């Protein structure tokens, strides 16, 4: 549990820098565009950005609530591997960095699939492992802390330490596909380095424009918009054959019928 809290803290730290703040502005615009076409009753916002109200500012979903492992700006306290929500209850799930901060990312996606209604939507935000910028720095720092903690004989199982890592967009799309989701749209964002000098950061704004055109796969973050599909199973019904009906015309007769006909109907 301590490992998970540390990882959440380190992921959240990235958004406190200049690159993270700029990424939030872009995320607000992208998610607002997604939500303009999504209707429903309930939206669940979970993960690092679970308490961000700006995501639902222009939403057409009637009610939204947030969930996280702490009480900061959130309505519910729970872990994403065990959502305290009934099956088929939520129309939209916005999940930010839930895969990086979980030792069982497959279970997280299964829980999202469980709570979503048929044809429900999921918007998932994650760090891009192929980014050339400093988005992964916080995760590397956490990995170092975990190794140091392991050396001091703290209870951090090695199997869990290996699973705490960023997930590529192609892997996440495959996982969604296995659950029956259709990927509707994918976006990369955050092409400026995470530097502290505000003047240098502002001067590198051109990287956002050209990065999206020339090297989109190298962005700091990716955002996936997926839709849950449920295959309807039709009950088996016996198809009755159309009865064969004799119509007027020539009818083939066997030899016995021909003899009877000549004997009795010849005259």
**Tally of separate helices:** 9
Give me the CATH fold name: Rossmann fold
By DSSP, the count of extended strands is 7
Q: Approximately how much beta-strand content do the residues carry?
A: 15-25%
Rg, nearest Å: 30 Å
- The CATH architecture comes to 3-Layer(aba) Sandwich
- Overall SS class: alpha/beta
In the predicted model, the low-confidence regions spanning at least 5 consecutive residues are 148-163
CATH class term: Alpha Beta
Elements, N to C (H/E): HHEEEEHEHHHEHHEH
Tell me, what's the shape? elongated
Largest sheet: 7 strands, mixed
Describe this entry's structure for a reader.
- The chain is an alpha/beta fold and 267 residues long.
- The chain has one domain: Vaccinia Virus protein VP39 (Rossmann fold).
- Helices cover 37% and strands 21% of the residues.
- A 7-stranded mixed sheet has the order 3-2-1-4-5-7-6, sandwiched between helices.
- Helix 3 (105-115) links the parallel strand 4 and strand 5.
- Helix 1 (2-14) packs antiparallel against helix 4.
- The longest helix is centred in the N-terminal third of the chain and has 18 residues, at 18-35.
- It is elongated.
- The relative contact order is 0.15.
């Amino acid at each position: 549990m301590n490992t998970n809290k540390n990882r959440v803290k380190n992921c959240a730290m990235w958004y406190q820098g200049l690159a993270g703040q700029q990424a939030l502005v872009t995320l607000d615009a992208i998610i607002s565009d997604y939500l303009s076409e999504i209707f429903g009753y309930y939206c669940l916002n979970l993960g690092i950005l679970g308490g961000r109200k700006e995501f639902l500012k222009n939403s057409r979903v009637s009610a939204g609530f947030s969930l996280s492992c702490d009480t900061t700006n959130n309505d519910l306290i729970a872990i994403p591997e065990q959502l305290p929500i009934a099956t088929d209850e939520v129309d939209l799930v916005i999940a930010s960095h839930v895969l990086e901060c979980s030792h069982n990312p497959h279970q997280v996606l299964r829980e999202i699939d469980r709570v979503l209604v048929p044809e429900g939507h999921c918007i998932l935000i994650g760090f891009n492992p192929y980014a050339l910028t400093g988005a992964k720095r916080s995760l590397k720092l956490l990995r170092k802390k975990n190794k140091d903690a392991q050396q001091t004989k703290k209870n951090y199982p090695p199997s869990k330490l290996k699973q705490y890592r960023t997930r590529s967009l192609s892997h996440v799309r495959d996982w969604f596909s296995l659950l029956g989701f259709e990927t509707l749209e994918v976006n990369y964002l955050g092409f400026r380095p995470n530097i502290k000098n505000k003047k240098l950061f502002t001067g590198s704004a051109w990287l956002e424009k050209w990065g999206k055109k020339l090297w989109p796969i190298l962005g700091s973050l990716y955002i996936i918009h997926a839709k849950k599909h449920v295959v309807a199973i039709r009950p088996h019904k016996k198809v009755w054959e159309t009865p064969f009906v004799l119509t007027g015309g020539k009818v083939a007769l066997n030899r016995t019928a021909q003899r009877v006909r000549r004997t009795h109907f010849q005259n």
